[in-house]
UniProtKB/TrEMBL annotation:
MF (Gene Ontology): GTP binding; GTPase activity; U5 snRNA binding
Domain Tr-type G span(s) in chain numbering: 45-149
GO biological process: one example: mRNA splicing, via spliceosome
InterPro entries in alphabetical order: P-loop_NTPase, T_Tr_GTP-bd_dom
Gene3D superfamilies hit by this protein: P-loop containing nucleotide triphosphate hydrolases (3.40.50.300)
UniProt-recorded name of the protein: Transcription factor, GTP-binding domain containing protein
GO CC annotation terms, alphabetical: cytosol; U2-type catalytic step 2 spliceosome; U4/U6 x U5 tri-snRNP complex
Pfam families per UniProt: GTP_EFTU
């Protein structure tokens, strides 16, 4: 036998297989139009950049889900379900482990007590100490932070 026993149909180097690690994105409409959000964002003095920080399992993602529920038409949201949407946990391993691994930013239009609208870039950050680099990056971007205790 020769040293070249491999058939021509079998590659010498196997091709790279792409692994899907992102969950499918649910699209839902907001209570405000995209043009209204763009108009608000054109005025930098109105923009608020906020990071949600806190320890593991302290409700940062659940709080973010509540904000999304207030600003979006959520026809698929089950009001009677105990299970939360975890809208900002976009990775499959985040959904399975029920913890955030990557910081996710969402632009939401929120109102103050005087019904003045502000565009808020809210960052849902991981709570585990091993992902503190994500929290550090979010805090560098943020104007302020909400500490979840």
């Amino acid at each position: 036998m020769d040293e070249d026993e491999q058939t021509l149909e079998q590659p010498i180097i196997k091709p790279v297989t792409n692994i899907k690690f992102e969950v499918g994105v649910q699209h839902s409409s907001t209570y405000v139009s995209t043009q209204f959000l763009v108009g608000l964002m054109s005025n930098p003095t109105l923009v608020r950049n906020v990071a949600l920080v806190g320890h593991l399992q302290h409700g940062k993602t659940v709080f973010m889900d509540m904000l999304i529920e207030q600003t979006h038409h959520m026809s698929t949201f089950d009001q009677n379900s105990e299970k939360h949407m975890r809208y900002t946990d976009t990775r499959i391993d985040e959904q399975e482990r029920r913890i955030s691994i990557k910081a996710v930013t969402m632009a939401l239009v929120l109102e103050d007590s005087n019904s003045k609208s502000y565009p808020c870039n809210i960052m849902d950050t991981p709570g585990h100490v091993n992902f503190s680099d994500e929290v550090t990056a979010a805090l560098r971007f943020a104007d302020g932070a909400v500490l979840m205790c």
